[in-house]
Specification:
Radius of gyration: 27 Å
Largest sheet: 23 strands, parallel
Shape: elongated
Number of strands: 37
Helix content: 10-25%
Length: about 450
């Protein structure tokens, strides 16, 4: 045995990165008393941290905790812990163990003003009720979409708040078995599902900005949820829903903007209970492949004051069937349809004839999706012309709006920080074009609908 081996081993131990065998930040945590604030020294710290007492860990925007590409970077096992003003990077990348930047196994906790990157999962809260996750920036590992982890995940975290987080290139913001949540003013882009709910009830989603994801918002088996003033833009994955509802009861979708998605809103058996309802009111659904897509068994939804503008197909039943089990007006007020050639003889803002879309081509398209290759082609025009010449070929209308609006309603109110202004401006332009080109014949004159930009 070499005589200098003990010296070599000692030097190796002294020079080893701190994540391999504890480190100065963990020493500060271990020495801290409950309730104290631990200031992380400025600089780059390669450590895995465990917090088992109620403390605040503050990096003052000058410290990085680096997991060195292994495991969980920060693990919390005690309630009343706050993590703030840190950069957290370098979790493991293998799926086993679901390595993440921060995992909390108790609550409440506060995770705020952190930057998380190069971590498979971002913030993973398990049985941490009353948690607050706000003002964090999360950028996922540079992996293909199917291999990414969730940016924020809550499991059994009732009465928690997730707000003003910015997420890119992750999988989902996902909420499991959590009730009474407040989810607001988050921005998620270039991910899979912007906001994904499973068995989570009594929640409000407001002013979230979801763009270029596979799906904007998807609710599954979740009841008593309100979605208001959210923006879903260019979500064009395989399904590409701006909003998707599956087996959900008592959902309110109000004053949202769904622009340039494959499908503006998709409804699958929602509500699912006999005595439940759904309300879709004041939404702008514009420039999507399909504005409203629903399964034929969808029932007891009320659509009113919505603006459906220049969608390739305004509304469709998924497969064969119609949407007649739903109501497309309330209290004598229906929706604005940009393809409605209305006559408003009494000038009351309501068309004198119902809106009854009867497209033979789209009826065939519902049964055979491969026909989409002929969309906007002479073949589509020929099919529609044939249906007009031979009325027997005209299909049953997919829906009936008995009181269609002749003027587009006001655009949903945008966010206070103006981040959505460019795309909301596009929505405003679409409404103006729809109003200008869709002039209504009133008393023998063309009447150009007016557009109001006042807040709802």
């Amino acid at each position: 045995m070499r005589r200098d081996l003990p010296i070599i081993l000692l030097l190796a131990w002294l020079l080893a990165p701190s994540w391999a065998a504890g480190g100065p930040v963990q020493d500060l945590i271990d020495r801290a008393r409950p309730g104290e604030t631990v200031i992380v020294p400025a600089g780059h710290h390669r450590e895995h941290l465990k917090i088992d007492k109620p403390i605040t860990l503050d990096g003052h925007d000058a410290a990085t905790i680096d997991g060195g590409g292994e495991g969980i970077v920060i693990e919390i096992t005690a309630p009343d812990v706050t993590i703030r003003n840190l950069r957290i990077t370098g979790s493991g990348s293998t799926v086993s163990g679901e390595p993440c930047a921060i995992r909390a196994l108790a609550g409440p906790v506060v995770i705020e003003h952190n930057t998380i990157d190069d971590c498979l999962f971002g913030i993973d809260l398990r049985e941490s009720p009353g948690a607050i996750v706000r003002d964090n920036t999360i950028i996922g590992k540079d992996l293909e979409e199917a291999r990414r982890g969730d940016a924020i995940r809550l499991w059994w975290c009732h009465e928690s708040t997730v707000e003003r987080n910015r997420v890119r290139r992750a999988r989902d913001l996902v909420f499991w078995y959590s009730e009474g949540l407040t989810i607001r003013e988050n921005r998620v882009e270039d991910s899979r599902y912007g906001l994904h709910f499973m068995y989570s009830h009594h929640t409000v989603l407001s002013r979230n900005d979801l763009r270029r994801n596979a799906v904007g918002i998807y609710l599954m088996y979740s009841n008593d949820i309100t979605l208001e003033h959210n923006t879903m833009i260019a979500n064009r994955g395989a399904s590409g829903y701006g909003i998707g509802l599956k087996d959900c009861d008592n959902i309110i979708v109000r004053d949202n903007a769904m622009l340039a998605n494959r499908v503006g809103i998709y409804i699958d058996n929602s509500p699912s209970s006999v005595d439940a309802t759904g309300l879709l009111e004041g939404n702008t659904i514009a420039d999507n492949g399909t504005g409203i897509l629903a399964t034929p068994n969808t029932h007891d939804n009320v659509f009113t004051h919505n603006a459906l503008i220049e969608n390739e197909e305004q509304a469709a039943a998924h497969g064969r069937g119609t949407l007649h089990l739903n109501s497309f007006s309330r209290d004598g007020v229906g929706n604005f349809w940009s393809d409605y050639p209305a006559f408003d003889g009494d000038n009351d803002g309501i068309g004198d004839l119902p809106y009854e879309p009867r497209s033979l081509f789209h009826s065939l398209l519902s049964a055979e999706p491969n026909l989409r290759i002929f969309l906007h082609s002479p073949a589509q025009q020929a099919i529609e012309f044939t249906a007009r010449v031979v009325p027997e070929l005209r299909p049953e209308p997919v829906l009936v709006d008995p009181a269609p609006l002749v003027d587009p309603p006001a655009m949903p109110e945008g966010p206070r920080d103006g981040r959505r202004a460019p795309m909301l401006a596009l929505g405003s332009a679409l409404i103006l074009v729809a109003g200008g080109l869709g002039g209504v014949l009133t008393h023998g004159q063309i009447r150009t609908p007016t557009y109001r930009r006042d807040a709802q």
